[in-house]
Design a protein that fits this description.
The complex is a heterodimer. Chain A is mainly β. Chain A has strands at about 5, 10-15, 20-25, 30-35, 45-50, 55-60, 60-65, 70-75, 85-90, 100, 105-110. Classes of the chains: A mainly beta, B mainly beta.
Chain lengths: ~110, ~120
């Protein structure tokens, strides 16, 4: 069963614009991670935010986490055509095994 | 390291046949996960191992599915007999889970299974 739900399901923007994707989840978490998947490829880890963190940055990526609302957002600034991919949030409820439950993902299309 | 290696990359089989998917995790990683991805159901966690021991197989859809990890460098996911609804992309992922600290998962390229 899926833990997280992303919205929007699909997002289409122009190069240079910012892209914001949201993720909601249902149960308590130890950490939340965002992954990227290019068409026909495996998932690649982007960023991890722990439950006691509220915001994290990595290059053009900014992730926020609101545990009271059980939600997270991923912001990609100054998007590029190469950012076109599907983006997934994944939650880890803890327990020491790094067991990740993935949401349905957001398909991002960045047009030149 | 070459990353997580899955084989085959593509598999087409007839309904009723046995299918075996293979995975070599990243050397030194102690957790291994099998996921299935479909348009309808997204990414589903099927089973995961820690130190070669199956921890939770509650995501395995039916008894037709089985997974093994005979050693730290190899795992298999077997479907017997296969059915058309098993058609999906199957991913293997591994991670290093040191004493409960959070860690990222590394995914293989996946095996695209088509059952006709």
């Amino acid at each position: 069963s899926q833990q997280g739900e992303e919205d929007p399901q699909a997002l289409s923007i122009q190069e240079g614009e910012n892209a914001t994707m949201n993720c909601s989840y249902k149960t308590s978490i130890n950490n939340l991670q965002w992954y990227r998947q290019n068409s026909g490829r495996g998932l690649v880890h982007l960023i991890l935010i722990r439950s006691n963190e509220r915001e994290k940055h990595s290059g053009r990526l900014r992730v926020t986490l609101d545990t009271s609302k059980k939600s997270s957002s991923l912001l990609i600034t100054a998007s590029r055509a190469a950012d076109t991919a599907s983006y997934f949030c994944a939650t880890d409820a803890g327990g020491g095994y790094n067991k990740l439950i993935f949401g349905a993902g957001t398909r991002l299309a960045v047009h030149p | 390291d070459a990353g997580v290696i899955q084989s085959p990359r593509h598999e087409v089989t007839e309904m009723g046949q046995e299918v075996t998917l293979r995975c070599k995790p990243i050397s030194g990683h102690n957790s291994l996960f099998w996921y299935r991805q479909t348009m309808m159901r997204g990414l589903e966690l099927l089973i995961y191992f820690n130190n070669n021991v199956p921890i939770d197989d509650s995501g395995m859809p039916e008894d037709r599915f089985s997974a093994k990890m005979p050693n730290a460098s190899f795992s298999t996911l077997k479907i017997q007999p296969s059915e058309p609804r098993d058609s999906a992309v199957y991913f293997c992922a591994s991670s290093l889970a040191p004493a409960g600290r959070p860690a990222e998962a590394f995914f293989g390229q996946g095996t695209r299974l088509t059952v006709v």
